[in-house]
Amino acid sequence: MWLAGQKLRAGGRGRAGAEICGLPERCLGMEPDLLRSTRTMSRPEGAAFQRSLALHRAVVQQVVREPKLLERASRRVADWRASGAVALPYVEAWERILSLPIGALTAELLEESEAGHDRRQVSPFAGVLDPRERWQILRQLGSNPHRATG
After folding, report:
1. What is the SS3 assignment for 79?
2. 44-80, pLDDT tens digit by residue?
3. How far apart are CA 16 and CA 60, in angstroms?
4. Is-contact 18 25, C-beta < 8 A?
């Protein structure tokens, strides 16, 4: 699994590293004027973007039906923090997102920006969709389910 946090290691936690990962300044603990907002970033295009968005739309439906999935996601993020397996800015972003009311959480999960896409590549909701549902979504998009991520 590709970890978006790997991009941060190249640039460090300074301004350059933060701009590379595209996370909002509140997630990095930096001064607001040091980073541009994710809301002004261009919307990425392409198959990977469409896959991650489609898969997370299905995740949102599952979370609405089964709110306990949020607890599972929160535990996964806590494990990331404890193990250091995921870059801290992504851990902090997911902790913030998972603490939001469902409407705001949904908006963050489906944010159509580069930062939203990057976060979906390091999603604590991996495994929420059963393989058949995931494959069906990927087939509808014309993707090979065995090589796509999400």
Report:
1. helix
2. 568 888 999 999 999 999 999 999 999 999 999 999 9
3. 32
4. yes
